[in-house]
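In response to a reviewer's request, we include the raw inputs and outputs for one of the modeled complexes. The two entities were modeled together in a single run.
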Amino acid sequence: MRTVTWESLSAEQQNAVLQRPAITEGANITAAVTAVVESVKTEGDKALLDLTEKFDGVRPESIRVSNEEIDAAAARLPEKMKAALNQAYKNIGAFHQAQKLPPLTVETQPGVVCELVTRAINTVGLYIPGGSAPLPSTVLMLGVPAQIAGCNKVVLCSPPPIADEILYVAKLCNIDEVYNLGGGQAIAAMAYGTETVVKVDKIFGPGNAYVTEAKRQVSNDFRGAGIDMPAGPSEVMVIADETADADFVAADLLSQAEHGPDSQSILVTTSVLLADKVTDAIQRQLAELSRKEIAEQALASSLIVIAESLTQAVAISNFYGPEHLIVQTRNPRELLPLLDNAGSIFLGDWSPESAGDYASGTNHVLPTYGYTRTYSSLGLADFSKRMTVQELTQDGLKTLAPTVVTMAEAEGLDAHKRAVTIRVEKLLAAK
Amino acid sequence: MRTVTWESLSAEQQNAVLQRPAITEGANITAAVTAVVESVKTEGDKALLDLTEKFDGVRPESIRVSNEEIDAAAARLPEKMKAALNQAYKNIGAFHQAQKLPPLTVETQPGVVCELVTRAINTVGLYIPGGSAPLPSTVLMLGVPAQIAGCNKVVLCSPPPIADEILYVAKLCNIDEVYNLGGGQAIAAMAYGTETVVKVDKIFGPGNAYVTEAKRQVSNDFRGAGIDMPAGPSEVMVIADETADADFVAADLLSQAEHGPDSQSILVTTSVLLADKVTDAIQRQLAELSRKEIAEQALASSLIVIAESLTQAVAISNFYGPEHLIVQTRNPRELLPLLDNAGSIFLGDWSPESAGDYASGTNHVLPTYGYTRTYSSLGLADFSKRMTVQELTQDGLKTLAPTVVTMAEAEGLDAHKRAVTIRVEKLLAAK
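The model returned the following structure tokens for the whole complex.
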């Protein structure tokens, strides 16, 4: 890991050192995904089976996973795994349940009542990537809020064969339909629907470059589907002072680095001594990791920044806007009011990122790649939408009328004005 | 207006009759906007002045409107106009102030505390279109929530010359900087910043096809800026039964139609008699409108749907998902729990859309073009973001550890597991 001292850098160098690597999506990915999306739109299920055979190397007997298969998978799962998933389900449920918003009613002036009401998004699609190991935690992070929001229909796609852990959580979250589908074909199927696959309103979940490109394409088409948030490589920043435990900091930086070669791990510390200790601890811990090669690649582009104060460390963090931010300082909570651009914040020595990644209750789907400046941690709000409602009494309208009429006149909108005056005239005539 | 009877249509015809016209953005618009964005990125203020001279026919002495000019505009404005704008400001403020969310804290299991905190987006840019008449109402709809959310810096662009009404509201909302800029160049300037224009995190506001395309382009660039929501033509649906006042319904349909030739006005009614009366009333009222030609064009593609029941009318509305939905039935509030896809709902005879367009308190920036299925009415939430926070005690981590370890093992993520076990081992060793 490279170490830089913040104060010794020019403003330009400070900016450069925290720049994220540009994501270069090859034009070949765009074209390949466009072809996949088109074939799913025109050929439906047939295209899905062909593409699954081509990309996943299996032609499933059925696109939809039957309830019997789901029950059997659940029955097969070891009790210890079930207990862990159940505990995570409970904690994530408690935190997301608390995010429910009661309807809001405000009488802005006598007889003018404005309301804000929440409705679940009707139909949502969850994407769970395949790969070397199953990701049941992501099913929880998407399935629990969908269930609590009360979405009418929740479907899930994952490339076959789908692991028992995923099917178990799908059942736990009461997901309506599970499909043996991965990649761009899964995204296209959910965005446009096929004979078997339900068309959804919004698609959630992580994925590789093809999945990301497919989500981008279907979300740019108003006949497609909405998506959760822009994707980017995962990243962590640790703010630490001289009281931090170097072994813990090293473990946290490594747990980010093992995600992928493009993961970013950045330590910002006021202590040069701690920086040295963390560098040593990383070398020691790295040797024991099964995903050592991946972590090493990620660490090559990672960084230690020496800050001259915690105030400066906070400013660096707010400028970078990390997806995950771990604060290991003497009084971590003191810094919280000053922190603004982050996806999820972990306070103190006993709050490792992996607690939130799996089971504490917070969501692990977070804005990354600088999108923390404008995007939120995934939550109940993303599975619902807010509508406004208003109801005016006769007197309310009469009182508000001069304001509306004056403004409509200024904006040259006659019919807007008439919609008010025609009503007020009728009220006056009725007297 | 065309009239159709819902029951007499096949499912395919029902679908077709409610299809929105496709928005065909010419490739020439895309290319023209790309050129504008590029020149603003490379040449900054110089490009802004050149482009403003080219497109708006004036070369302003200064890009930024001085505080003296703003004060002078405010002083010039007639008292009646100020009173109307002040009243609207007050009502919109009351409704958006009530949307503030207190921080949420949940102890999901003993010693595991999860929080949801809200932060204002740091820097936001508001775009107010020019045109034949000023749009101070849109300044209110964007400026009030930005002010209440507590955004650190709020800037506004509008093509010169900027009307006194707009400058007055900018002052009311305490907007930090106002620029003489319109079109794609305004969007590019706010997304990337120039010598004079502040770079913003997120851009809000309506605009023509060039503005919409520029917003799309800068939001697809992670070094650009976020945007509020996808754009589309404005639309209204009225659900009415035999108790509705045909003059009121006609006035509401017309106040939508006068917005632009692509506006959609749809009446869904259980009463054939009412449908006839509304058609007559539209003809009568149309004659008196200054924007008669525009309204006539919009009405040409508008529609009356005869439904056999209010239940069916509600289903039609939920399927179409109108931006504005006006309910003029005997008991409008009875239908509210059944309505789910709409931007803003107006209940009863005395709640015309123009009340909400200007001054009742609700926001008039709403999802349209079917995006009501997944997007919300603009509100305080759009000017802020939610971060999660967690803090575990030593005992909290010890209790949660087996769950995290089991799940990390299932996902093959060693370092995630180590970040927990290294801490628990230290706790056990310290005993």
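As requested, we also summarize the result in words. Chain A touches chain B through 131 residues (CB under 8 Å). The domain at 393-429 of chain A is CATH 1.20.5.1300 (Single alpha-helices involved in coiled-coils or other helix-helix interfaces).
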